[in-house]
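Narrative of activities, Objective 1.

The group set out to show that a structural description can be obtained from nothing but a protein's sequence at a throughput compatible with the screening campaign. Below is one input-output pair from the validation batch, recorded exactly as produced.
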Amino acid sequence: MKLYGVTGWKNAGKTTLMERLVTEITGRGLRVSTVKHAHHDTDVDQPGRDSFRHRQAGASQVMLASPRRWALMTELRDAPEPALEDLLPRLDPVDLVLVEGYKRAPHPKIEAWRAINGKLPLATKNDTIRAIAADGPVETGLPVLDLDDVVAVADFILSEVGA
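Output recorded for this entry:
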């Protein structure tokens, strides 16, 4: 599977860019999956739901299945967080996996950057970042794309992965 990341500081537009990229790239006929890394404790389940109660009771894994989707939740129970490369084989094969976060992982990335954040681009200290999608000019030796030009960003990523 081809893999490409979207990274950046908080409130830089990563999730919006990811959403727009998925729409654009799937609209071109490619199959896309996503991985979102969260640095904080997160829960996709709801207290009181049957699946939540199963996990609270001590289940290591809970699979939730319905006519429209299924999900598998795995409780780490103090085990270390798995690395991205250990999670990717659990995905079904697709044309492209877009990864939000995992800024230190070795896969290639584009950085979402907004001047209003007042921070230097991550690209200044991260050589896995191949381009910056920005809301204005950025001093860098990397390609700088308009953050709102999702077609250009998608073209760049697909060119990078050879799709």
